[in-house]
Design brief:
Layout (H helix, E strand, L loop, with lengths): L11 H13 L9 E4 L2 H12 L5 E6 L3 H9 L3 E8 L2 E2 L1 H11 L3 E4 L13 H14 L2 E5 L28 E6 L11 E4 L2 H12 L7 H12 L1 H26 L13 E5 L5 H10 L20 E5 L4 H20 L13
Amino acid sequence: MHTPGYHPYGLPELRAAIAERFVRRGLPTLPEQILVTAGAQHALTLVLGLLCRPGDRVMTENPSYPNALDAMGRAGLRTVSVPVTETGWDVEIVESTFHRTVPRLAYLIPDFHNPTGCLMPERERVRTLRAADRSGAWLVIDETLTDLALDGPAPPPFAAHAAPGSGAGRLITIGSMSKTHWAGLRIGWLRAPARLVTELAGQRVATDMGGSVLDQLLALDLLDRADVLLPSRLQQLRDRRAVLAEALTQHLPQWRWHLPPGGLSLWADLGEPIATALAEQAWEHGVRIESGAHFATDPGLFEQRLRIPYTAPPDTLREAVHRLATALPAALSRPASSRRRPHWIA
């Protein structure tokens, strides 16, 4: 090692590789626009800490990623939400919410949205960018699932749709290797204007002098071999998605769901508001799954929903669905208890 090992911005070679990845996807990017982080959640937390103050409005989707919502709550931010249904986003509601609430920041997951799996069409991306620009809001785009396109090519970067001279200066893109490679490799990044990257790196030093160099070297090697490694990962997910769909059809045919075009999970409609009770009963049967209510911006929503990942091996998926079906009668006859158990959602 020829340096002290402290890289608050990230390993220079890795920053260059991530920037080149954006270039190949159609978005001109310089290494100075990249900050390497300890995962996408770390990137979001840094952004919220720098750009927002307690009481600021933040626009989110509903449902949305629970850990992002928790980060906003811990920062004392007020969320205003726009719905995402099985058919996607209502862009008129998105535009109206930007105009009506004038949020400080908006956090969106347009690529294989977590948890619904929806993919935002190009026209709606352009309108969303224009609405954010008119309102003066910062726009944070979570692209952690972008590469996991199972039924077609991966979409270009959201920021590539920004018109020159528009609000691209207030657009931040977050990415990660956790979903495409391994969750234990805590390497993420954000792309932002170089000035903002410098400010974020300064904030980062207060709690984190820089990420593990060894992890970043591994990430660099994996990114260099992405064209070789990713196709097998995508085929594995296609196969497991099919296994999960077949098991649900066999054991729980009354549930409704659609195959997402990418991502890692199904957003199942149970038909009744029993998700929390079912999650409790499933825990007793050795299956850990969380109620759709954890993905809601407001209490009491999505109790009829479960996010069911298809990341486990096929035999595990089949057995898990069988156990869910076994637990279902008790969930239907017994309300959820007030007892809280620890939960975390990846």
